[in-house]
Amino acid sequence: MTWPEFWIVVLRVILTFGLLLVATLINVWAERKILADMQNRIGPKRAGPWGILQTVADGLKLFFKEAITPRKVELGMYLLAPFLAVVPAFLIFMMVPWGKPFTIAGNEVTLQGADLNIGLLFILAMSSLAVYSVVLAGWASGSKYPLLGGVRATAQAISYEAAMGLAMVAVVMFTATQGDGGTLSLAEIVERQAGTWGDIIPALEPVLQFIPRWNVFPQIVAFIIFFIAIVAETNRASFSLVESEQEIVGFHTEYSGMRFAMFFLAEYVNIFSMCAIAASLFLGGWNGPTFEGSVPAIVSGILPTVWFLAKTYFLIFLFFWIRATLPRLRYDQLMQLGWKRLIPGALAWLVLSAFVISFRQFGAPWSQ
Amino acid sequence: MGLIKELIKGLRVTGGTMVRTIAGDELVTTEYPHEMRVKPQRFHGRHVLNRYPDGMEKCIGCQLCAGACPAQCIYVRGMDNDPESPTSPGERFGYVYEINMLRCIFCGLCVEACPTEAITMTSLFEISTTTREDAIYTKETLLMDRRGNVPHMFPDDELADLDELDTADGWLRATAPGGVAAYEGVKMWQGTPGPADWSPEPSQEERDRRTGDGEEDG
Asked: What angle do the packed helices A297-325 and A220-233 form, to 10 degrees?
C-alpha cells in the first residue's frame, strides 16, 4: 500500500464516520419535529434555527450528567455494554456505499468505509453482535426489571433477524442473475441496480425503460418483510417493546448520563444505517440521474450522494410516520407476527423467487 | 386484509395532520410569553381597588368583602375619615387592606359583596412571587393612583403585562340593575379602571360591530 492509498482510506473512513454522525444528529431533531407536526405540536424550536441544535444541547447535557453506578452491577460488563451497542452500529454503516466511486490522480476512491466482499454477512454479524449489548446491559445491571427487559429484547431481535436474513437471501439470489456470478458486496449489489429495466420483458419495453432497475420491483415482498424486520431490529415503535418508555421497564433502566447517551446514539445510528442498507439493497443506493455533461462535474459527482440520502431519508420518514401512527405491539402479538407471518412469508418468497430464477436461467425441468 | 386497511387509515390521519400543521391550519399552540391569548371579558384576575372620578377612594372599610371571602384571604381594617380632608365619601375608609394571593381562589365573591364597587378584578394573571411575603398584596399595590393607573408588583418583570391591568373584568355586565338584563344605555360600568367620564353601556350588536366579530374583546 502506497502513501496516497493509505490517506485515501483514512479520509474515506473519516468521511463516512462524519456523515453518519451528522445524519444521526439531524435524525434525532427531525424525528422530534416530524412527530410534533403529526401530533399538532411545534416541537423543539429554541436551540438554533428551527431548534436544529437541540440534539447538540441534549448531548452536552447528557455528557455532563452524573453517571450513576448502582451497587449491585457486574462492573466490567456494565461498563462494556454501551460500547458493545455503539461499535457494531458504526461498523454496520462502514459497509454502505454512499456515493459513486471516482478516480482522483490515478487512485480510485470508493465512497464507503470498507468494501468487504462479504459485506452482507458482516452486516448480519454486527447486528447480531449488537444483541449482546442489550442482554449484557440487562443482566449486568443487577436488577430484575432490566434483566426481563434484556431477555425480551433478545427474543425480539433474534426472531426478527431470521426474517431479515431470509429477505436478504432473496435479494442476493436475485442479484446473482443480474451480473456475472453472485455477490455479497453491497457496493456490487448497488452497481448492478444501475440503469432501467429496459427490454427484460419485450412486450412491456415502452413502460419498463422508464422504471429504474431497482430490486424493489421484482422483490417487493422481500422489501416489505425486510422493512418490518429492520423496524423491529432497531427497536422502533411499534416494536419498541424493548424500551417501552411509557409503561414497562427496558434494559437500560440502570444507565444514566453518558452511558445512556451511548445506547441512545446506537439506536439512532442503527436507524440510519439500517435504512441506508434497505435503500442500497432495494432502492438502488446512490443510483439516479446525474445529468453528466449538461451540469458541472462537481454537481454530477455529488448527485449520487444526494440520491442516496434522499432514499435513506424517505425510509427514515416512514419510520417516524409509523411511530406516530401505530400503538405498540403486545409481546405475544410481536412473536406471532415474527414467527407465524414474517418467517414463513420470507421462506415462501425465497422458494418462489428461487423457482422463478431457475426457470428463467435453465428453463422448465420437463423441457430437457 | 382488514389490518392493512386500518394501517393505511391511521397513516392518513397522521400524515394529514402533519400537512395541516405545517401549513398552519390546525396548529393550536400559542407561544405564550411572546403571544398572549385574548382573555374572556369576565376573566377573574388580580384585584384592584378603585377610585371615584374625583379621586376619592371607593372603599368604605365595611369588611363585607372579608366576610364574603370563602378562603378568608382578605383583611380589612376601617378608620374614620378626617372631616377636613376625607379619603372616601363616607363615614369610614379602608385603612388597612390586604389580600393574601396564595389563599385567594379568585371566585369574585368579594367583588359581588362590595356595596360601592370598590374592589374589582383585572385580567392580569401573572402574579407568581418568589417569597410568601410578596404574595400578600397591601393597599399600596391594590389601590390605583389618582390617574387610574394600577400599580404592578414587579413592573420591571419581563412577563409583567401592564396592559392586562388596564382591562377590568366586566362581571357587572352580567348583573344588570334590578336583575334586568337590558343594561344598554345605562351609565353603570366603566370598562377600564380609573377616574374618567365614561360612555354608557353599548348594546351587544354595537360591541360586536366594534370588535369586528362576535368574539370577546376583553
From this structure: 70
Does a cis peptide bond (omega within 30 degrees of 0) precede residue A300?
no
Q: Which residues lie closer than 8 Å to A273 by C-beta, 6 or more apart?
A: A20, A89, A92, A93, A96
Neighbours of A351 (CB within 10 A): 11
**What is d(CA A27, CA A65) in angstroms, rounded to the nearest whole number?**
23
The mean-pLDDT minimum among A342-346, B78-82, B176-180, B192-196 falls in B176-180
pTM of the model: 0.79
Q: Which residues of A86-106 are buried (b: 16+ CB within 10 A; e: fewer)?
A: bbbbbbbbbbbbbbbeeeeee
- Quickly tell me which residue has 374592589 as its cell: B119
**Taking a C-beta distance cutoff of 8 angstroms, is the pair A117, A185 a contact?**
yes
User: How far apart, in Å, are the Cα atoms of A56 and each of A25, A28, A51, A215?
Assistant: 7, 10, 10, 37
Write phi, then psi, for B92 (nearest 5 degrees): -125, 170
Q: Count of residues for chain A?
A: 368
- What's the distance, CA A223 to chain centroid? 13
Q: Which of A7-21, B42-56, B124-138 has the lowest mean pLDDT?
A: B42-56
B61: left (phi over 0), alpha (psi -120 to 50) or beta: left
Q: For residue A194, give the amino acid letter.
A: A
pLDDT (0 to 100) of residue B176 = 43
Using an 8 Å CB-CB cutoff, list chain A residues near B22. 37
Q: Do B169 and B37 contact (CB within 8 A), yes or no?
A: no
**Average pLDDT rounded to a whole number, residues B189-205:** 60
Distance from CA of B108 to the nearest CA of A (A): 34
Which cell numbers hold the place of B105? 381562589
How many whole angstroms separate alpha carbon A152 and alpha carbon A260? 19
SS3 annotation, A99-112: CCCEEECCEEECCC
Instruction: Please tell me if residue A337 touches chain B, with a CB cutoff of 8 Å.
Output: no
When CB atoms are compared, the residue of A38, A41, A42 closest to B14 is A38
Closest CA to B80 of B71, B65, B91, B88: B91
Distance of CA A112 to the CA centre of its chain: 15
Cβ atoms of A40 and B17 closer than 8 Å: yes
User: Whose CA is closest to A210, among A195, A221, A200, A230?
Assistant: A195
Q: What is the mean pLDDT of residues B104-129?
A: 86
Distances in whole angstroms, Cα of residue A289 to Cα of each of A214, A284, A292, B191: 13, 12, 8, 68
Residue B141 to residue B102: CA distance in whole angstroms: 15
B92 touches B80 (CB < 8 A): yes
- pLDDT, tens digit, 9 for 90 and up, residues A67-85: 888 888 889 999 999 999 9
- Number of Cβ within 10 Å of residue A52's Cβ equals 16
Stated as kind and residue range, the H or E segment containing B76 is strand B74-80
Q: Do A38 and B31 touch (CB under 8 A)?
A: no
> Nearest to residue A36, comparing CAs of B123, A302, A28?
A28
> Which stretch of DSSP H or E encloses residue B95?
strand B92-100
User: What's the CA gap between B106 and B22, in Å, rounded?
Assistant: 38
**Nearest to A22, CA basis, from A115, A100, A93:** A93
Q: Are A168 and A281 in contact (CB under 8 A)?
A: yes
Give the mutation candidate from A33, A34, A40 for the B interface (greatest B CB count, under 10 A): A40
Instruction: Say whether B59 sits in a helix, a strand or coil.
Output: coil
